Amino acid sequence: MEIKMNKEIRDYAETMFFGLSLRQFLFSALGCLLSVGIFFLFRSDLVLQILSYVAQTERDFMKQRQAEGIAAAGSCDMSYSTFYKRCKEMED
């Protein structure tokens, strides 16, 4: 059985938790606690921001689809009334 030992004492680094030194572990835990605290502090604003992003994205998609439909109708040289009549004929 061999045990790996550093020849120089300065090269030795003690690991305490999950392969991290005590200092690294403490600052990692502090960072996690701080981020969780910030999340709960701004939770309502965060949810509002996410919902407004989803609504804005959906509006952009609707405008894009509307523009594509208008372009497709215009390329067929169709007026609105002709297009409406054809849609009604397709439904019947």
Folded structure, characterized:
The chain is an all-alpha fold and 92 residues long. Helices cover 71% and strands 0% of the residues. The termini are far apart.
How helix-rich are the residues, as a percent range? over 70%
Q: Determine the structural class based on helices, strands and strand pairing.
A: mainly alpha
Total beta-strand segments: 0
Mean pLDDT: 80
- What's the end-to-end separation, in Å? 87 Å
Number of helices: 3
The biggest sheet, with number of strands, parallel, antiparallel or mixed sense and barrel status, is:
none
Order of helices and strands: HHH
> Globular, elongated, flat, extended or rod-shaped: what is the shape?
elongated
Radius of gyration: 32 Å
Bin the strand percentage.
Answer: under 5%
Low-pLDDT residue intervals, each spanning 5 or more residues: none
What's the arrangement of secondary structure elements?
Layout: H1 22-41, H2 43-75, H3 80-91
In short:
The protein has 92 residues and is an all-alpha fold. The protein has helices at residues 22-41, 43-75, 80-91. It contains three helices and no strands.
Tags for this model:
mainly alpha, single chain, 92 residues
